[in-house]
Input
Amino acid sequence: MEWGGDVSASRPRVLAVSSQIPWPLDRGGHIRTYHMLKGLSRSFDVSLIAGDHPDAATAVDELADAGVRCLPVRLESRTAIAELARAARSALANEPYVLFGRHDRRQMRDEIGRHAAAEAFDLLYLDHLDSMVFANLARSRPIVVDMHNVCSVLLRRRAAEERRGVTRAYLRRESSLLAAMEQRAARTTSAVFAVSEQERRHFAALGARQTFLVPNGVDCAAYVSADRAPDRRAPLIVFVGTMSWMPNASAAAYLCRDFLPAVRRQIPDARVRIIGRDPTADLLALAHHPGVEVVGRVPDVRPHLNEASLLAVPLDAGGGTRLKIIEAFAAGLPVVSTAVGSEGIDASDGEHLLVAERDQFPDTVVRLLSDADLAGRLAHNAKQLALSRYDWNIIGQDAARAMWSTLPGA
Output
């Protein structure tokens, strides 16, 4: 669907900027960026400038199939001296280095500047807060920034868990600087996309001109069509997430060390499967525990969701919305999550999923595993929610409509 009248004759040109090419679709950030650009390409001519990729040719072809022209930028290899220099420049400018200054690369600036000078775009779309380092290259064109998270909150929660005093102090300072940068982004861009209503209100309170709720989503057709065949004889509890992100690693360790033994006291053959790239050595070692599997990165998570009895999301830190929960909804897989884990999803406890904190998590999972009617009702309601509200096709249309509103004369 196209917005703003007859755009087929003269489609506005969007220049998107991201620190990474969103391929392969093996992490939440890549999935969101890819589907957002794919959705926008139905109403705009979309070009993407992003840091180079080990398999750039494949990534460029995949994005082209999605309607996006990808312009990979070959970046110089990072060195300790160069990163220290970036960190020092960030400190002198009183700006954050993490999730911001470290992405300020000269080659990216040169490519964006070339397009700006050639008037090769009508609107600058900045993917994530770190792309705000290039906002000054827009040359008075409208800027839309897509905030995947409230990064300052993520880092503040990370700091609270840090045991080393020096690191904790550094992370707290960076969190404060990120909060200031988020305020700058809100006040200097034409619009902010937020993944949850809570975060949309947060950016509106910072003084954003326009804020739009553009949630994370799922390709429902790819999940709904699959047939689930859970092993009822040996209940399988899965957890999905990038293990290099500390909240995910912490949740996975909790499931293996504390949660599963408590569950197995009531359901002796229950199993836990940890899925996600970059598991640490400590996490891999947990595979020696009875009933624990640590499979790491998988090419396709759907077979694991289809085999599982439920998805467990015992996160106690983080932000944004969990793609893993929405994918489970679309696949018809029941979900048990903490309140933090299900933040940002318009789902109700007892209707679409069960919400429990860690002290009640094992008993809640046992309850769900023992009640097939409850599990079936939650899965049915959650699938309908995914189809009606969280399909990427619907989200892409809403994002296109929002972007049209930022253009001059809209």
Q: What stands out?
A: The first helix runs from residue 28 to 40.
